[in-house]
C-alpha cells in the first residue's frame, strides 16, 4: 500500500510539472504573439505617419506658379491713327453676321432717298436725283433726321448732309414748320444718344432747323433742352452746347430766352 501511495505521488508530481511547463509555453507564445502584434501596429503607425509626412512634403513642394506665367499677356488696344478720319467705319454688305438694317438703312438701300454719295479725292458730296427744291419734305426731312442716329458710313454722311442741303432750298421754312411736331422727337433722340458723334450731328441739325423756322421752334424748345442741359455739365461739350443755346436765342428771340432760362438757369444771355 505504501508503494502504491508513493507511485501515485510520483505521478501527481509529473502531471503538475507537465501542466506548469505547458502553461509557461502558452505564456511565452502569448507574449510572442503580443510582441509581434505590437511591432506590426507600431510599424503600421510609422508607415501611416511616414506617408502623411511624404504627402505634406509633396504639397509643400507644389507651390503655385507665378501670376506672370499663368495669366495671359495683357491686350494692348491699338491707338487711333490720324488717317482713320479719312476711312470712316463703313457698313459691310457681305458680312455674314451683320445686324438687321435700321429703318434709315432699309429706306436708303431701296432708293427711298433721292440722292447718292459721290466720293471725291478731297471730300465727299451728295448728288441728288432731282433738284432738292422740287422735293416734298414730308417724309424726306423726317427720314433724314432719323438717319442722324446712324453710326456707320455712308449713312452718317448722307443723313447729315442731306438734312442740311434740304433746309437750304427756297421755301424751306414753309415746308418744315408743319413737320415740327414730328421732327422734334426725332432730334431729341439724337441729342440723347450715348454716342458723342451722334449728339454733335443732332446739335448741328437743331441749329440749322432753328435758323430756318425761327420763333416757330419756341413752342417745342422745352422738349430739347433737357439733353442740352446734361451735356453742358460735361467739359467736352460745354462750349458746343453754350454756342447752340446762343444760336437758339438769336433765332428764337426773347421768347426763346424765357424758355431756355426756365430749363437752364445758369445760361447767360447773349444780350447781357
Automatic annotation (TrEMBL):
<feature type="compositionally biased region" description="Low complexity">
    <location>
        <begin position="38"/>
        <end position="51"/>
    </location>
</feature>
<dbReference type="InterPro" id="IPR011989">
    <property type="entry name" value="ARM-like"/>
</dbReference>
<dbReference type="InterPro" id="IPR019399">
    <property type="entry name" value="Parkin_co-regulated_protein"/>
</dbReference>
<protein>
    <submittedName>
        <fullName>PACRG isoform X1</fullName>
    </submittedName>
</protein>
<dbReference type="Pfam" id="PF10274">
    <property type="entry name" value="ParcG"/>
</dbReference>
<feature type="region of interest" description="Disordered">
    <location>
        <begin position="36"/>
        <end position="96"/>
    </location>
</feature>
<dbReference type="InterPro" id="IPR016024">
    <property type="entry name" value="ARM-type_fold"/>
</dbReference>
Amino acid at each position: 500500500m505504501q508503494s502504491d501511495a508513493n507511485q501515485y505521488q510520483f505521478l501527481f508530481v509529473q502531471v503538475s510539472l507537465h501542466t506548469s511547463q505547458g502553461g509557461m509555453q502558452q505564456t511565452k507564445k502569448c507574449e510572442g504573439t503580443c510582441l509581434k502584434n505590437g511591432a506590426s501596429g507600431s510599424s503600421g503607425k510609422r508607415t501611416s505617419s511616414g506617408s502623411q509626412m511624404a504627402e505634406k512634403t509633396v504639397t509643400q513642394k507644389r507651390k503655385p506658379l507665378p501670376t506672370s506665367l499663368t495669366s495671359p499677356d495683357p491686350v494692348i488696344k491699338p491707338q487711333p491713327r490720324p488717317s482713320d478720319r479719312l476711312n470712316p467705319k463703313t457698313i459691310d454688305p457681305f458680312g455674314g453676321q451683320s445686324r438687321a438694317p435700321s429703318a434709315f438703312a432699309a429706306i436708303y438701300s431701296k432708293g427711298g432717298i433721292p440722292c447718292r454719295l459721290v466720293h471725291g479725292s478731297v471730300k465727299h458730296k451728295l448728288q441728288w436725283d432731282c433738284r432738292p427744291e422740287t422735293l416734298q419734305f414730308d417724309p424726306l426731312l423726317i427720314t433724314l433726321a432719323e438717319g442722324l442716329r446712324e453710326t456707320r458710313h455712308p449713312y452718317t454722311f448722307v443723313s447729315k448732309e442731306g438734312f442740311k442741303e434740304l433746309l437750304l432750298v427756297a421755301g424751306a421754312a414753309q415746308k418744315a414748320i408743319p413737320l415740327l411736331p414730328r421732327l422734334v422727337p426725332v432730334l431729341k433722340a439724337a441729342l440723347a444718344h450715348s454716342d458723342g458723334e451722334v449728339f454733335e450731328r443732332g446739335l448741328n441739325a437743331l441749329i440749322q432747323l432753328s435758323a430756318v423756322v425761327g420763333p416757330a421752334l419756341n413752342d417745342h424748345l422745352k422738349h430739347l433742352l433737357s439733353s442740352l442741359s446734361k451735356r453742358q455739365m460735361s467739359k467736352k461739350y460745354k462750349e458746343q452746347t453754350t454756342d447752340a443755346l446762343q444760336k437758339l436765342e438769336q433765332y428764337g428771340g426773347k421768347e426763346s430766352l424765357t424758355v431756355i432760362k426756365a430749363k437752364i438757369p445758369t445760361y447767360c444771355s447773349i444780350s447781357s
